C-alpha cells in the first residue's frame, strides 16, 4: 500500500474559498480506482494547518490520481490559497 501525507497551511481569510475545493477534490478522488482512503483533517493546535491522508493500492494508482483532471485543476487552486508551499511525503507501507 502507498500512503501520502500532504500538508497545507490555509489562513482563516482563505478557508471559505478552500473548503469547496477540498470537498470536490475528496469527493472525486474517493471514486478513483485504487483509492483506499482520502481524507482531510485540521490540526487541533493550529487552525491553519490541514493534512490530507491518502492510501492507495499501488503506486500506479497514485500516479493515475496525480494525472487526473480534477487533481491538475484543484491542487493549483489550493496552492494559490495556501500561505506556504504544499508539502507532500509519499511512503510505502511495510508492516
Report on this model:
- This protein is of the alpha+beta class.
- The protein has one domain (2-92): 2-Layer Sandwich (Alpha-Beta Plaits), CATH 3.30.70.100.
- 41% of the residues lie in helices and 32% in strands.
- It is built from three helices and four strands; from the N terminus they run E-H-E-E-H-H-E.
- It has helices at 12-29, 59-66, 69-81; strands at 2-9, 35-42, 49-56, 87-92.
- The chain has a four-stranded antiparallel beta sheet with strand order 2-3-1-4.
- A hairpin with a 6-residue loop joins strand 2 and strand 3.
- The longest helix has 18 residues, at 12-29.
- The radius of gyration is 13 Å and the shape is globular.
- The mean pLDDT is 98.
Please report which band the strand proportion falls in: under 5%, 5-15%, 15-25%, 25-35%, 35-45% or over 45%: 25-35%
Distance between the termini: 10 Å
Give me the secondary-structure category. Answer: alpha+beta
Largest sheet: 4 strands, antiparallel
Oligomer: single chain
Summed up, the helix count is: 3
Number of strands: 4
Determine the CATH topology. Answer: Alpha-Beta Plaits
Provide mean pLDDT, rounded: 98
**Adjacency order of strands in the biggest sheet:** 2-3-1-4
Unreliable stretches covering 5 or more consecutive residues: none
The SSE order reads EHEEHHE
- Tell me the CATH architecture: 2-Layer Sandwich
* Total number of distinct structural domains: 1
Query: Rg to the nearest angstrom?
Result: 13 Å
Amino acid at each position: 500500500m502507498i500512503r501520502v501525507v500532504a500538508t497545507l497551511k490555509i489562513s482563516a481569510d482563505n478557508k471559505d474559498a478552500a473548503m469547496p475545493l477540498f470537498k470536490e477534490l475528496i469527493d472525486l478522488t474517493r471514486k478513483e480506482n485504487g483509492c483506499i482512503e482520502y481524507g482531510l483533517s485540521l490540526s487541533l493546535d493550529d487552525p491553519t494547518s490541514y493534512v490530507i491522508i491518502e492510501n492507495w493500492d499501488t503506486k500506479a494508482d497514485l500516479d493515475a490520481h496525480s494525472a487526473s483532471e480534477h487533481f491538475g485543476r484543484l491542487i493549483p487552486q489550493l496552492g494559490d490559497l495556501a500561505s506556504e508551499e504544499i508539502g507532500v511525503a509519499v511512503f510505502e507501507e511495510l508492516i
